[in-house]
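@here heads up, posting the sequence + SMILES for the flavin-adenine dinucleotide run so it's all in one place. Ping me if the SMILES looks off, I pulled it from an old spreadsheet.
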Amino acid sequence: MSTAPTIAIVGAGLGGLTLARVLRTHGIASTVYERDASPTARDQGGTLDLDEESGQRALSAAGLLEEFRELSRPEGGEVRLLGKDASTVLHAPAPEGGGDRPEIDRSALRGLLLDSLPRGTVRWGRTVRAVAAPPAGRPTLTLSDGERVEADLVVGADGAWSRVRPLLSDAPPVYSGVTMSHGLLEDVDTRHRALAEFVGHGSMYAFGDERAVVAQRNGGGRIRVYCSVKVPEGWSDTEGAAPEAVTKRVLDHFPGWDDALRALITDTDRPLVLRPVHALPVGYRWDRVRGLTLLGDAAHLMSPYAGAGANLAMLDGAELAGAIAAHDDLETALNVYETALFPRGETAAALAAANLTGFLRPDGLRIARDVFVSLTSHTPKAASGDDTR
Ligand SMILES: Cc1cc2nc3c(=O)[nH]c(=O)nc-3n(C[C@H](O)[C@H](O)[C@H](O)COP(=O)(O)OP(=O)(O)OC[C@H]3O[C@@H](n4cnc5c(N)ncnc54)[C@H](O)[C@@H]3O)c2cc1C
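bot reply: prediction finished. Complex structure tokens:
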């Protein structure tokens, strides 16, 4: 690109930061507007395995692959699949050296990207309240303090409930019928030794009765626990409820499950948080609007059941930066980017929807076993079978 455009990125998640970083490697400056007050204002969540074709490809474009390998946790690739009675259906030890999808804590990955950006690139505590895109002029952001920012390009990297998305399409995310509880066990090798041994060094999945308990070992002696249940959306409203009542609300969905699996729900060190799972329609896309685009969850929000959202967000960021650098005309760059983005998002969203439906069927354990056998032999495969939900 001959004259660098002014680029405003809304959201300092993994997607927005990868975009800023790869732009930077091409000598193009950008500004990231983030509503969190600081990098540590919010728990960044658990562990991610980065795929060679998406997350790692993005880090390669960012020039950060070596640093990523140093921060990754190869032992986190261990996988256990259990029945609701805790019987082992599959146990795959971590591949040598982390295999082709090494695990990394999200906070470490976000820190790596942040540290790679010039100071001041991310403007913390700057919530974007409104976005306007006049047909003839440049798009404008209005920030929470009233400041207005004009740019040649505004990128919505602002996640599930994007403020930029409504300017491109009016289709909102839809509740999947599944709500997840999020729990955290801390200092597990001292305080929760039996559960630490039960979960192992990587991820443990248990499926049955159209429900799931997933526990993932993180760095820093932590285990994150996610339970999935099929409930009406209002079930997650816990306003005013005591933590014990929220725990009971989740536990009541797991009668007859093994004591260790139930202990993963009851023994958490922080109150459980209930989060409904939303997704954009599979095949979601929009018509070009001058000076605006989306990436990551803003572009293709899907259930976590494909383990793909963060990987794709990073690849989107890297691809968008590459397209901007490669084309003199911004609209041409956006066309090139979106032409590849839409089918990529559609494939992953279809996999996520198939796995969510398949794993939470009455025979979900069998379906999960088929998928996990493929995954642990490094060939991704969608859940199969009739949708009887
Ligand atoms: C339980 C769970 C497990 C998952 N596991 C995996 C996995 O194993 N592998 C994987 O690849 N993916 C996984 N995902 C999906 C992954 O977390 C998301 O797809 C990914 O974080 C999307 O990144 P993003 O940058 O698009 O958006 P986000 O990470 O949501 O970042 C958006 C940023 O925008 C900011 N923001 C929002 N609104 C505004 C505003 N108005 N103004 C300014 N800033 C704003 C937010 O504060 C946030 O920092 C999982 C998701 C969940 C819920």
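MO: The domain at 7-74+100-173+280-357 is CATH 3.50.50.60 (FAD/NAD(P)-binding domain).
MO: One more: The chain has two domains: 7-74+100-173+280-357, 175-278.
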